[in-house]
Amino acid sequence: MRHCVVSAPVESSLCTIRCRKSSTMFTSRYQYSTGNNQSDRSSATGISFAAYSLLLAAVFVPAVGVMFYYRRQWRNSLKNYEAENIYQTPFVDSKTRALVQHQGSWFPVVMFPRLQRFEQIRRFTLRSDDILIVSFPKSGTTWLQQIVWLIVNGTNTENDGLNMEQRFPYIEYEYPGLNEIEKLKSPRLLKSHLPYNCLPAGIETGHGKVIYIARNAKDVCVSYYHFYRMMSMVKYHGNFADFCRLFISGRVAYGPWQDHIADFWDHRSDRNILFLNYEDLHQQPEVWVKQVAEFLGCSLTAEETAEIVRQTCFDVMKRDSSVNYSWWDELGMRVASESQFMRKGIVGDWMNYFTAEMEAEIYECCIKPLQRQGLVFTDRPH
What is the pLDDT at residue 13? Predict the structure, then answer.
């Protein structure tokens, strides 16, 4: 029997629209009311064409059009920042290459077109039962999200109709946006790649529960390289050596890696923060699944723990259309000739990419500073 003091989310009303062009069902979790009885459903079918058009715009356009929204942002956004705080990333599509430096970290200008965007996120009000998954990109975020989803909702969620982006809204992303996230029922499950000092300020006073996952720098660098190449908005066309230099310099989205991790490592003893290590989760998944459940106030049986471990192993998740980001292909967000969103999910793939010189440089710039603070990563398979 599973007991959890974090109550399972009340099932949200769902509004679905089928797009004949792509034969894809887009499902919105955000505050549309649909009838639950036959008369309600019948009246819903009589919706006027104008209202239907508005509904289509509210659900379909954000899902498909957010990529094009970002492409329109870049021209007007650059003038909102001082030139010395802008870095034009080489080997990247001209419309998405600009990064802006804010409080020591680098962010895509297309996602943060104005300084006020950072301020809005800082002011966002967290609830005591919010659960926020945070990481530097390509550090096991989706893996941890699926673990948390199954802990909170149980392992029988295959037909809930939601994909990972709908289960865990990305708080700094334009869609669905902070206004819609504010309306979600508790407990809200949220995701972010923001560094500690850019997250909602309530975290610093103990509001919400933050689970942070960190991964060794070399595997993150390799995975991030493939992600940059995969994203159709980015279209990175440099080689790995070029990208490795960018990563080590910290001039990648959300970089520098070591600063991102160091801030959360410093707060690992805060009562509302749980710091996890990707490699430890690989080696002892049962131990760390139970640790996450305990942090969330949940009690799992041995059978439930084993089932969560089974459902969150890489091969199972890669086949699961609700978590593998295959919907990005439908939306044109992935370059078809590049890797899938879920690529390998292993420890030690960096050995297929790094030269001895690269390894020495990333150690000095990224790994050694964290070792001095007592954080040591395993970067080879057991």
Answer: 32
In a domain, 52, yes or no: no
**Active-site residue 226, yes or no?**
no
* pTM, rounded to two decimals: 0.79
User: Does residue 44 sit within a domain?
Assistant: no
Residue tagged active-site, from 193, 207, 226, 282: 193
Query: Quick check: is 67 in a domain?
Result: no
Residue 186 lies in a domain: yes
| CATH classification of the domain holding 163 | 3.40.50.300
61-84 residue pLDDT tens: 444 444 555 555 545 566 778 888
Who contacts 120 (Cβ-Cβ below 8 Å, separation ≥6)?
178
Q: Show the DSSP H helices in 276-376 as ranges.
A: 278-283, 285-295, 302-311, 314-319, 327-330, 356-362, 368-372
The Cα 377–Cα 216 span in angstroms is 6
Angstrom distance (rounded) from CA 291 to CA 353:
33
Most confidently predicted of 11-25, 40-54, 115-129:
115-129
Question: What is the domain count for the chain?
Answer: 1
Per-residue pLDDT of 212-258, as tens digits, reads 999 999 999 999 999 888 877 777 889 999 999 999 999 999 999 99
CA 292 to chain centre: 18
pLDDT at 58 > cutoff 90? no
Edge-to-edge order in the sheet of strand 98-102: 86-88, 98-102, 105-108
CB atoms within 10 A of CB 183: 11
Name the residue range of residue 328's domain: 3-7+127-372
